[in-house]
Amino acid sequence: MEKPFAITLSVDSSLANHTGSWRVEKPEYVHRMPPCNNACPAGENIQNWLYIAEDGSYESAWRALIQENPFPAIMGRVCYHPCQDVCNRSFLDEAVGINSVERFLGDHAIEKGWSIPAPEKESGFKVLIIGAGPAGLSAAYHLRRLGHDVTVRDATHAPGGMMRYGIPKYRLPREILDAEINRIKDMGIKFEMNTRVDDVHVAMDEGFDALFLAIGAQLSKRAYIPASEAARILDAIKVLHDVEDGNKPLLGRKVVVYGGGNTAMDVARTAKRLGAEEAVIVYRRTRDKAPANDLEITEALEEGILVKWLSTVNHVGQHELRIEKMELDENGFPQPTGEFETLEADSLILALGQEVDFSLLGNSADLDVVDGTMSVDATMMTSHPGIFAGGDMVPADRTVTTGVGHGKKAARNIDAWLSKSSYENLKNTDLVTYEQLNSWYYTDAPHVVRERLEATRRAKDFSEVVQGLDESNALYEARRCMSCGNCFECDNCFGVCPDNAIIKLGPGKGFEINLDYCKGCGICVSECPSSSIVMVPDK
Amino acid sequence: MTTTPIKFYQVGSFAVGNRLLSQDDRSIQSDPDRTNALTSGHRACQGCGEALGARYALDAAMRACNDQLIAVNATGCLEVFSTPYPESSWRIPWLHSLFGNAPAVATGVAAAMKAKGRTDVRVVGQGGDGATVDIGFGALSGMFERNDDVLYICYDNEAYMNTGIQRSGATPPAARTATTQAVGDAPGNVFGQGKNLPRIAMAHEIPYVATATVADLRDLEAKVTKAMSFRGARYIHVLVPCPLGWGSASCDTLKIARLATQSALFPVFEAEKGEVTSSTPIRKLVEVEEYLKLQVRYAHLFSPTRNDAVINQLQAIANKNIARYNLMPQNAEN
């Protein structure tokens, strides 16, 4: 080729030399499992919706979120966020405030009035859901999305289950609950409230093709406690239910709550708000062994709730009760010490846990019940074909989020069962650890703490205790996500390749390796902040 | 610091780019339309720091002068791997003459451009540490002394890698090379010899002198851009790890450059007219050992027995750098 004077080599002539032939290993872009997603009982793709929210596309982020969970505003208030407990960012500074961003998205959606379209195609199948709690509502939502004709029946007069009759208003304002339930109702789900189902088989005979049971666990556990005739002993679930119905229970000035779970915390805090001067929780073990979520214990203590750890109620009188001090044996079980103490108490509220009320199911002898819960297989189906169950009535953690997760899982399996196929959830098991991230690239940014009402003020009424984030700090919080195991387009691979062998495909499209020139040095893999590139043998 | 940290919490300003940053805040390397001064198909080893450093620096220089740039290259790895006849990886006007005369040729090109009235065309001279601190040192010193309008960039991989890893004036103490074997009472390169070229350049009181590494792209780009804003002789010394000569994993090139800065063995600073004007604070201080143990050229310090005396001597050099360049300002204030 003729070249101008003094020019000996042509531009780009080195492209003829395909250095890719030197390679024995090649880099590959992957999607790995971030710990948050792995821990979410509702199976949310948290990293994904945070990523979408990071550029301010809140509606898209919200729509991605509700693929898995229809209640972000509720979750942002009542979920105990196991995602945050395992967030890799906690090794760097503090966990990402996932729950607060979820609440922001949920509240934003309510404010903007975003709705969920009805399914494009009706399947022709009819599904009955018994119980309008988190599991039932979640199942109803997912089944409706899949085009099924869904009816929800519940014995109470308003849907929500324990979200309405168990969780007090100061944790979950009812306008939020109503807004999120109404939104799924508008998809064409039928609600038959004040309708008790006495026999599941009769219900099936009404022409339903499948049935989902989610009646919860509403029966308070009882314990035998010697008591005088005038003693006032109430049951926590009943108290919370009455408060919701506007029937103020008579508790007196001094209230003792027996139990160490979330219900005990909720009912003690409710008693304070109803005007009790003093609310004391009596629990037989220590704080670290209490089943209540630590946040709830902290909030209760801040509000002036007293707790007698390592104590059992021994005798209940009219205005006082006797407690016995306990000590933990080497196995961590409380043992009596013979030391007693008298507490002033006008009433005792029992919050010792709940059981499933199987009498609601009437003639259901052919459904397997083991240890007080209903047995279900991996598809959430009971021993009776076509009858599925989930939520608090099956063995699992009894939280709202777990219920929502059960509803989703059951819905997808019911859908598969109806169409005589099978639902396969191919869970990505390639979990990302903190050590696999290149933490150099993440700047320190401590998380935003949500404001809470002052303890002295909040114990007086039922105003919401934990406040939400505004847009600027929600965005900041979302952007703290390290995007574990998934590319967030930081351009590092594109920049650090000594061979210019990474092709940038443009916004949202990620990158590609040009294998003609990639020598397989692996710098892109080591410098990827989020561990979303791996080296694989090159065949 | 020469770069203003961008208040962006996910990756701050450390990563090459970010989809959420405005175009102006992104690095030149994050731009799909970057010059790619040194393009694919070159024959540098896997994980070559020098190939990366040259592309970073020249792409930034091109951006700074509206693509009116001529590069003059000394003999060395960079020249050999980029232009094996009949191929060239250069996408900019590029000229090679001899091992020792790159600064003089660059001076000549600058003079020619001046004579032609092409003040818009800028000149970069470049070479490895052998060409810069040893063989071309006289020509470079002359270029500095005359304050010729050239930006000279040294890609320092601390030995003559192209010819088989022989010691250069920039080889650090204790490092094993082909000519400083890890044998005898004082294994590896001797202490107390060698040349600190950034300081020698400062002694010429030229307009601008800076050090940088391939581990901090934004800092490197900012320094090249700043250097291009001056007329006269300018010098940038870029640390570029060499997996072959240093005996390190090819995937660790940036990691090692980063550890060189975070251990304070390689101070990152800039100077104008002979005075240090700023230095890059250490973000996560590490002991020199963290840097040394990833490299086979220092393996004799750890096996068969650990040589604490020499490791401590190297740590002393790092400690001196911290004090001299104020690399831990957060500590100095307390």
SSE order and pairing:
The complex is a heterodimer of chains A (539) and B (334).
Chain A: E1 25-29, H1 35-39, H2 46-53, H3 58-65, H4 72-78, H5 82-86, H6 98-112, E2 126-130, H7 134-145, E3 149-153, H8 162-165, H9 174-185, E4 190-192, H10 200-205, E5 210-213, E6 219-220, E7 233-235, H11 236-244, E8 254-258, H12 262-273, E9 278-282, H13 294-302, E10 306-308, E11 311-316, E12 320-328, E13 334-344, E14 347-350, E15 354-355, E16 369-370, E17 373-374, E18 387-389, H14 400-418, H15 455-458, H16 471-478, H17 492-496, E19 502-504, E20 511-513, H18 523-527, E21 533-537
Parallel strand pairs in A: 2-3, 2-5, 3-4, 5-18, 7-14, 8-9, 8-14, 9-10
Antiparallel strand pairs in A: 1-21, 6-15, 11-12, 12-13, 16-17, 19-20
Chain B: H1 49-64, E1 69-73, H2 77-82, E2 94-96, H3 102-115, E3 122-128, H4 129-135, H5 137-145, E4 151-156, H6 197-203, E5 208-213, H7 217-228, E6 234-239, H8 243-246, H9 253-262, E7 269-272, E8 275-279, H10 288-292, H11 308-325, H12 329-333
Parallel strand pairs in B: 1-2, 1-3, 3-4, 4-6, 5-6
Antiparallel strand pairs in B: 5-7, 7-8
Helix pairs in contact in B: 1-7, 3-5
3D architecture notes:
The complex is a heterodimer of chains A (539) and B (334). By secondary structure, chain A is an alpha/beta fold. Chain A has helices spanning 35-39, 46-53, 58-65, 72-78, 82-86, 98-112, 134-145, 162-165, 174-185, 200-205, 236-244, 262-273, 294-302, 400-418, 455-458, 471-478, 492-496, 523-527, and strands spanning 25-29, 126-130, 149-153, 190-192, 210-213, 219-220, 233-235, 254-258, 278-282, 306-308, 311-316, 320-328, 334-344, 347-350, 354-355, 369-370, 373-374, 387-389, 502-504, 511-513, 533-537. Chain A folds into 3 domains: 13-31 and 487-537, Alpha-Beta Plaits, CATH 3.30.70.20; 40-218 and 356-430, FAD/NAD(P)-binding domain (3-Layer(bba) Sandwich), CATH 3.50.50.60; 222-354, FAD/NAD(P)-binding domain (3-Layer(bba) Sandwich). In chain A, 28% of the residues lie in helices and 17% in strands. Chain A has a 5-stranded parallel beta sheet with strand order 4-3-2-5-18. Chain A has a 5-stranded parallel beta sheet with strand order 7-14-8-9-10. In chain A, helix 6 crosses helix 16 and helix 7 (134-145) runs parallel beside helix 14. The mean pLDDT of chain A is 92. Chain B has an 8-stranded mixed beta sheet, sandwiched between helices. Chain B starts with 48 loop residues before the first helix and ends with a helix.
